[in-house]
Amino acid sequence: MSNSCWRMGCAIATAFLFSGCAGLPLDQGRSNVQSLVQARAPMMPVAGAVPGEWFAQPLTLERAQQIALSGNPSLKARYAELGLSAADVFEAGRLQNPSLGLSWLLPTGGAAGSKVGASLMTSFADLLLRSSRQRIANLEYASLQEVIATAVLDVLADTGRAWFECVAANQRVAVRRSIAEAAQLAADLARQYRDAGNISDLELQVQRAEATQARIALHDAQLDLADARATLQKLLGISALRSAWAVPESLPDMPSSALPMADELAARAIEQRLDIASARGHVQALRVKHESTRRYRLLVDSRVGATLDREADGARRVGPSAEIALPVFQQGQGAVARVEAELAAAIAKLAELEISAQAELARQVSRRTGARTGAGLSRRTHP
């Protein structure tokens, strides 16, 4: 009996020892996020310190994206969530601290001597659910890594879109300024012709109206440029006090590579979209949680441990003890129903994501094809 107790004690001590030695898996989580992003964006710039001289020249697309990876506030908040989830993984692998109970019974009536008792108790459900709890926490941690990787890709895409819009707005301002200057020169020349009697007052007013419309169009283009710069600046995480930054004056040439087929993109979207993968991981974690909750619902409040009693005559007794919660008023139906509702909501959310991904993909393919066609027509019309 003593050997069996000794072996059991050694096993429990070993479990506590290894449970306390593991650290937070935060660095591994950050590395996994980078791997997920690199697998889907091989040309992604590496986040790091941003040299100050970058702002002394027009920002390229690659530099703008690298600045966003380093300074975007929403990404910093997302990585903070990764730290919280890593803490959940750390705690899921730890057993709850046992509770120590002490008693001192004084003699009353005809009793002689006092009696001292001590008990060490821990949650029985905590022992049973430790494996499931670890698995759920790891699944949720992996799911959050995919969510953060999705956020990184979204920031890259949003920054790229904002950069192109800012460059295009900058280019429109230059064009509108040239038009406004030309219209003003034409209006000044028309005034000289009118003074010389070569044109009528009506023709002069037409030229002046055209010059005014050109100035209004230039003003609108400048407002659009200010909006585009504000959007890009927000994504880059640049302080509003920093205004000494610029983008190129003209858009790069349109790539000549053919667009992938819509069917091919649809299959890749469902398999590779990280938000869908994250939703699937969340559903899997809830399935594990549902199974463990349903199986051990009657033992949640039960406790096990050991008790030591010292009698008045010095005799000692030690042995196991247990506290079993009696399922009189409830049998865990609420906890099971809650998990079932969470699981049903997660499954519905996954289906919604898959349908939305396909619809959004079809819309973006159509828009990109139309934009590519329109850009080609514009280049042929205005060489």
Task: Give the strand content.
Answer: 5-15%
In DSSP terms (H or I, runs of 4 or more residues), the helix count works out at 9
Percent of residues in helical segments?
55-70%
Query: What are the secondary-structure elements, in order, as H or E?
Result: HHHHEEHHHHEEH
Radius of gyration (CA) equals 35 Å
The main β sheet shows up as: 4 strands, antiparallel
Number of domains: 1
Which regions have little confidence, pLDDT < 50, spanning 5+ residues? 1-21
Structural class: alpha+beta
User: What is the strand arrangement across the widest sheet?
Assistant: 1-2-3-4
Overall body shape:
elongated
E-strand count: 4
Straight-line N-to-C gap: 95 Å
Question: What is the averaged pLDDT score?
Answer: 81
Model description:
The chain has 383 residues and is an alpha+beta fold. The protein has one domain. It contains nine helices and four strands; from the N terminus they run ααααββααααββα. It has helices at 2-21, 26-40, 61-71, 73-92, 124-195, 201-236, 262-272, 274-295, 333-381, and strands at 99-105, 115-123, 303-310, 316-323. It has a four-stranded antiparallel beta sheet. A hairpin with a 5-residue loop joins strand 3 and strand 4. Helix 5 (124-195) packs antiparallel against helix 6. It starts with a helix and ends with a helix. Residues 1-21 have low confidence and may be disordered.
